[in-house]
Amino acid sequence: MARRPVNFTLNGSPRAAFAEEGQNLLEFLRRGVGDLTPKYGCGQGTCGACTVTVNGRTQLACLVLAETVEGAEIGTAAGLATSGTLDPLQEAFMDHFAAQCGYCTPGMLVSARALLDANPRPTREEVVEAISGNLCRCTGYEPIIAAILSVAEGRARA
Amino acid sequence: MTTVETYGTLADAARALGSDAVYLGGGTLVMREVNAGRAPARVLRVTDPGLAEIRASGDAASLGAGVTMADVLAARELDFLHPVARVIGGPQVRNMATVAGNLFAAHPYGDFAMALLALGARVHFAGGGSPRPVEEVLRDRERGGLVASVEVPRPRDPRAFGFLKVSRVKPKGVSILSIAALLPREGGRIRGARVAFGAMGPTPLRAAGAERALEGQTLDAATIARAADQAADGLDPPTDALATAWYRREVAGVHLSRLLQRMERG
Asked: How far apart are CA A1 and CA A4, in angstroms?
């Protein structure tokens, strides 16, 4: 089976790896590149556990053909903490107990970060809309919404 | 096993298309099949950025096949399509799913194609030729080649176009049914009524009975009641995990009358 070289940027660093033919971006990132933060939930684009950014916009890695990200900038939850300092969203998720089993958390964080980058002061309704493509079966969403709003309002613990 | 072929232009891909091939647009439909090992042997894709172009003139807009729902929402000149694009999938899906892909989305998806049907849009295919009405394309989805762009007439009066999606889960849930109505008025009377339903058949369908009830009338309570009464006429609702065919038929008129009442209020 053909393997194709893919050059791209992962969380700001240039990377190159081989993609299997027909391989999706989720498998490529996890097996080919070694970034295990995007999770494999449904493989059908329903759960959002594999959410990453492609050129700054959230997409479902399981529905992206890996070879199409040639030259693209990919962002994952692994890129949120910089030099040992957590993103304020990650702090807020801890403070608000917004992660229980944790499986949805990386995708949830990527969606939340994309929202706040585009709209630093979202309403509660805009937060709900922004995470509507990310399923959580533990929290009932309220702690997650509270965590995101706390950062949006600049009230997160530093 | 799936092999992937990449082409520079849609014309090249159209020539390579065959019964063993499928076209990859935004990936939200085709990659599901690839992941499940159910995709055709060959997946074709095109890198031409021109496929994502939006061109708007006074009375019509041309949407390239690769225009995403997020692109539609970012285009101010497409404001009449914003209520439709906003309820397709979740944020990630809207960043991926394309206008042309929605024409081929199986039940219960295809709310955008349903709105295009009500608006009387026409579909341009690779290789030129005259554009075909959306309803003709929907009737014969298996055959027809590669979509290049969709030409959408802009409603002269924005209040003449209404859209409603009914789902159990909000804000992101698939349709129990969806409705779009284009009701242009001349001297207060409806001329050229077009009403379409999504998730009420194997493809989006026009509601012939409702259109007959509305044509030539003023949009008042009596007309709305007659249209609601005829709402399911000409439709073929399926039973699925969300609702039975019986339920969909029962509530079609209720939701149509709610949409029409909203349009009546303006």
From this structure: 10
Which chain B residue has its CA at the smallest distance from A67's CA? B4
pLDDT at res. B144: 75
B260 burial type by CB count under 10 A (0-12 exposed, 13-18 middle, 19+ buried) = buried
Whether B32 sits inside 8 A of A24 (CB atoms) is: no
Q: Of the candidates B110, B83, B89, which has an alpha carbon nearest to the alpha carbon of residue B201?
A: B110
Interface list for chain A against chain B, based on CB atoms closer than 8 Å:
1-2, 21-22, 24, 43-45, 48, 51, 54, 57-60, 62-65, 67-68, 111, 114, 128-130, 132-134
Confidence of residue A158 (pLDDT cuts 50, 70, 90): very low
Q: What is the DSSP letter of A53?
A: E
Sign of CA dihedral A72, B79, B148, B207: positive
Q: What is the pLDDT of residues B67-107, one digit of tens each?
A: 999 999 999 999 999 999 999 999 999 999 999 999 999 99
Q: Which of B46, B69, B92 to mutate to test the interface with A (most CBs of A within 10 A)?
A: B92
Q: Domain locations in chain B?
A: 3-46, 49-153, 161-265
In a mutagenesis test of the B interface, which of A58, A111, A141, A148 is the best target, namely the one with the most B β-carbons within 10 Å? A58
Interface of B with A in 1-30 (CB under 8 A): 1-4, 6, 24, 27-28
User: B74: helix, coil or strand?
Assistant: helix
Do the domains at A3-78 and A88-152 have one common CATH topology?
A: no
A3-78: CATH architecture: Roll (3.10)
Rounded percentage of chain B residues whose pLDDT exceeds 90: 94
Residue A2: band (very low, low, confident or very high) from pLDDT cuts 50, 70, 90: confident
Complex-level ipTM: 0.96
Query: Is the Cβ pair A62, B31 closer than 8 Å?
Result: yes
Distance of CA B31 to the CA centre of its chain: 20
From the candidates B1, B3, B35, B69, which should be mutated to test the interface with A, based on the most A CB atoms within 10 A? B35
Q: Does domain A88-152 have CATH number 3.20.20.70?
A: no
Q: Which CATH architecture has domain B161-265?
A: 2-Layer Sandwich (3.30)
Reported as a single tens digit per residue, the pLDDT across A102-120 is 999 999 999 999 999 999 9
Q: Write the CATH number of the domain with boundaries B49-153.
A: 3.30.465.10
